[in-house]
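ok new one. same drill as before - structure tokens go in, u give me an amino acid for every spot. 230 of them this time. try not to just spam alanines like last time pls lmao
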């Protein structure tokens, strides 16, 4: 008796979502001769163009982490707050109770992806990360709205809580503690994560899925630039 292949079987099954349509990318091209000598400079150029085109939240990125030894991967959308002069991408979050914190404690390597649909571009970043000190994190913490600072203290991110009401009660207790001051210390478990890239990819969508992909790979203090297939 002949058996259907798994692929054929999947094609004959009904789908909740079936989306065969593909968008054609025709806005621009990316050539090796046109990219900056260093990836952080190329990223700065593209990021400014995203801002100029009024891309909604261009600093939004997908942060992927992996727990060891299982290798199980998790990801989430966070916001880049800084690209420093060393080319490190800096984000801020809870590094005490969150899922990404648990992953990071076993594995310091992370991956980031920026996606700017309107420009038909994405940027991928891979590298090793390290936590900023409380002293380094405090200046940004001070810039946050007071409610966001209170929320960072009150919430044990990613941990179970019995109800929304219980969460709001805890927030109210913290708010009361700091009701007469704007000076709120950054929690020990909250702060910045600086990703030190050793790999960047700049992706420009092209027609018929024959995309331009230019990569920078760290080699000592220099970067090797190459093109890879779509």
């Amino acid at each position: 008796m002949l058996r259907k292949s798994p692929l054929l079987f999947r094609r004959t099954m009904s789908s909740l979502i079936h989306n065969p349509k593909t968008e054609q990318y025709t806005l621009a091209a990316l050539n090796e001769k046109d990219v900056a000598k260093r990836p952080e400079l190329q990223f700065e150029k593209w990021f400014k163009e995203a801002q100029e085109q009024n891309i909604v939240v261009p600093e939004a990125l997908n942060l992927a982490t992996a727990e060891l030894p299982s290798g199980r991967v998790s990801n989430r959308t966070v916001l880049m707050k800084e690209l420093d002069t060393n080319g490190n991408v800096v984000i801020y979050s809870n590094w005490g109770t969150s899922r990404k914190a648990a992953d990071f404690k076993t594995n310091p390597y992370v991956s980031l992806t920026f996606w700017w649909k309107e420009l038909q571009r994405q940027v991928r970043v891979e590298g090793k990360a390290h936590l900023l000190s409380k002293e380094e994190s405090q200046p940004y913490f001070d810039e946050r709205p007071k409610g966001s600072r209170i929320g960072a203290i009150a919430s044990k991110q990613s941990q179970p809580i019995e109800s929304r009401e219980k969460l709001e009660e805890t927030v109210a207790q913290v708010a009361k503690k700091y009701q007469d001051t704007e000076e709120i210390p950054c929690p020990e478990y909250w702060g910045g994560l600086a990703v030190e890239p050793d790999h960047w990819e700049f992706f420009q969508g092209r027609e018929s899925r024959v995309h331009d992909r230019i990569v920078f790979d760290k080699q000592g203090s220099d970067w090797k630039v190459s093109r890879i297939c779509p």
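Residues 39-52 form the longest helix (14 residues). and btw Residues 215 and 226 are 5 Å apart (CA to CA).
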